[in-house]
Amino acid sequence: MFQDILVTGLVNGGVYALLAIGFSLIFGVARIVNIAHTAFYMLAAYCFYTLLVRLHLPGALAAAIAVVAVTALSVLCYRLVIEPVREHESAVLISTIALALIFQELMLYAFGGNFLGIPSAVDGVLVVFGVSIPYQRLLILVVAAAMLAGTWFLLYRTRLGLAIRATANDLEVANLMGMNVQRVAMATVAVSVALAAIAGVVVAPVFVVDPFMWLTPLVTMLAIVVLGGLGSLKGSLIGALIIGYVEAITVFVLPQGAFLKGAVALSIMVAVLLVRPEGLFGVVFEEER
Amino acid sequence: MSNPLLYGARWAWVNLRNEVLVLPSRTLALLWVAGVLLLPLVYGDPYILRIVAMTCVFAIFAASWDLLAGYAGQINFGHALFFGAGAYTSALVSIRLGVAPWLGVVAGGAMATLFGFAVGYVCLRLRGSYLSLATLAFPLIALGLLFAFPDFSGGELGVSGVRSLAVSRTANYYIIAVVMIVLVFGMWQIADSKFGLVLHAIRDDEVAVRASGINTTRYKLAVFAMSAFAAGIAGALYAHFLRVAGPSSLEVALSFQVVIWGIFGGVATIYGPVAAVFILYPLTEWLGSFRAFGELRLLIFAVIVLLVLLFMPRGLTPWVRDKLETQCPRCKQRNGSWRAVCRLCGAPLRLGAAAAQSPR
User: Fold this and answer.
1) Chain A to chain B, count of Cβ pairs less than 8 Å apart?
2) Among the four residues A206, B135, B189, B344, which has the most C-beta atoms within 10 Å?
3) Better-scored residue on pLDDT, B113 or A217
């Protein structure tokens, strides 16, 4: 059981980290609370399913097309729906909720509400220390690690990353330094949704695909980013691992654990907030006046 | 001449003409109250009555969210917690203890108020997006607990067989409608009072309010409790009306729904979210009644919300109100937009209106 907890927590934590870091990025740069973030994750899973199972494309190609298509769609949505109402924070908020509902209903209409399964990209299990890990879960872990490293590289070793970090730090000063903050925000949306889409594609064979699959990870992801501190990437990563392990422990140890895993994870978030209102690694914002 | 009845009627008419009919928004509010109260007499179709009763329940809920989120700026993403607490408490009390429905509704409101205090206390130090995202957690924690103890809560199926409020359908409708009107106008009064002014100030600049010697903690707890009380009453009415309290009363979807109603109608107005519910809820039900649209109901709803927001980012009612009324630049009173001069102080409302003023 101990090994199960170790592996499940790590795999779930990796997926959550992909989602939470994307969400955190876009919040940090554009101050958008993007409720539709996990809806893009759901869309990517559906897109992957269609290409792989219905159109019989090879797995790698299907995955690449799904990620690119969903990312393009997100940029389109940002330009058409979010950008016109950017000054009105509350309007942005419900625009993203409405977008998520639209995606959910479209998928419900197109594919029906039943669960769809996707065959694993790689079969077989790896046995380490007496615990068997399916290769697909190992793939999730590897992809998550690679993507996190990639994001780190993008943010800290490229000019775009510098621009993103500068904009997140101080939007007005970044604008005065001649950065096109609109363009930076759009690039951030693309990076962030690409991470969500990759997460959607890799987890699709492990979880089932259905139109409501965006809700549970949405709540977990929000708990993680709040726990880690809004806008802090390090916080999101550590928060994701904490929540991943807490969920795994709850499921394996407590009776009725499957029902309680969300409640326990969220209670931990609330407990952390009581002690540190800005999250584990959040910066204490000066009162914005 | 000195007939008190005649005098009263004359007083009522003068007040009606001078205070209500001069402003389109007040006329609309009067028509709305009259419409809600007279509906069963004019058109007693059970289906319509049912829809309007549900609309009334959600109107209380949306208005209570606006008191908390719009006025005090505590944008609550987990408002369904109070609704669900009211619904479950009222249902469990009336089934386990067999008390009268009205007492159950009061118990539901009281329990929701307790929850309001608790959530308010936890959230005192949080602000902005942290508060929104943290509050999202509370109804889900409650939902997890309900599912983990199905003997107590009925699990997935919820608590069914709750007694209805009254025997006849019309009486049921009237109870809900009157409670709705009382609560909504009550919240409107609160929001318009000095208390509401402090809430406004807390939303805009909490530090400045504290610096002015106002105990913001007390105000925030109070508004959490009030808002939760109204939402709890709405939840209890919902349970007694549908005769079941289920997990759907705690779901994320309901919390998001109320945020959509509130922002669509226009925040910090009280009447805005109520108007939004009275437009959107019957509309979605009506769309759902078509076979072809039944599956697309939520989709159409979301698209309408999105399109309206693109053109009216501040919400529906502020936009409509600006079209119908103008504010006097001198005395800040509102006037019908057809007027050239202010009805109270005579200041010109438009450029060049001073010239039009002289012939009168």
Assistant:
1) 133
2) B135
3) B113
Give the count of alpha carbons within 13 A of A28, CB side only: 29
* Residue A57 forms part of a structural domain: yes
Domain range for A51 is 18-211
pLDDT digits (tens, 9 = 90+) for A10-62: 888 999 999 999 999 998 888 888 999 999 999 999 999 999 888 888 888 99
The predicted pLDDT at position A48 comes to 92
Q: Which residues of chain B make contact with A219, given a CB cutoff of 8 A?
A: 136-137, 140, 252
Task: Indicate the number of domains in chain A.
Answer: 1
Residues 189-248 of A with CB under 8 A from B: 215, 218-219, 222-223, 225-226, 230
Between CA B5 and CA A199 the distance in angstroms is 74
Distance in Å, alpha carbon of B133 to nearest chain A alpha carbon: 6
Nearest neighbour of A219 by CB, restricted to B75, B147, B252:
B252
**Cα atoms found within 13 Å of the Cα of residue A68, Cβ hemisphere only:** 7
Instruction: State which residues of chain B have pLDDT below 50.
Output: 358-360
What are the structural domains of chain B?
A: 37-326 (1.10.3470), 328-360 (no CATH)
Cross-chain Cβ contact B260/A279 below 8 Å:
no
Residue A213 is classified by DSSP as T
**CA-to-CA distance for A217 and A16, rounded, in angstroms?**
8
Q: Give domain status of residue A285, yes or no.
A: no
Residue A3 lies in a domain: no
Average pLDDT of A203-209?
A: 85
Give the pLDDT score at B293. 67
In a domain, A67, yes or no: yes
Query: pLDDT for A67-125, tens place per residue?
Result: 999 999 999 999 998 988 888 877 888 889 899 999 998 998 888 878 888 877 677 77
Residue to substitute from A23, A88, A226, interface B, most B β-carbons within 10 A: A226
Residues 6+ apart with CB under 8 A from A230: A24, A27, A28, A279, A282, B129, B130, B133
10 Å CB burial of residue B211 (0-12, 13-18, 19+) is exposed
- In whole angstroms, give the CA distance from residue B284 to residue B300: 8
Kindly report the nearest CA distance between residue A238 and chain B, in angstroms.
18
The reply to whether ipTM tops 0.90 is no
Contacts with B305 from chain A: Cβ below 8 Å? 94, 98
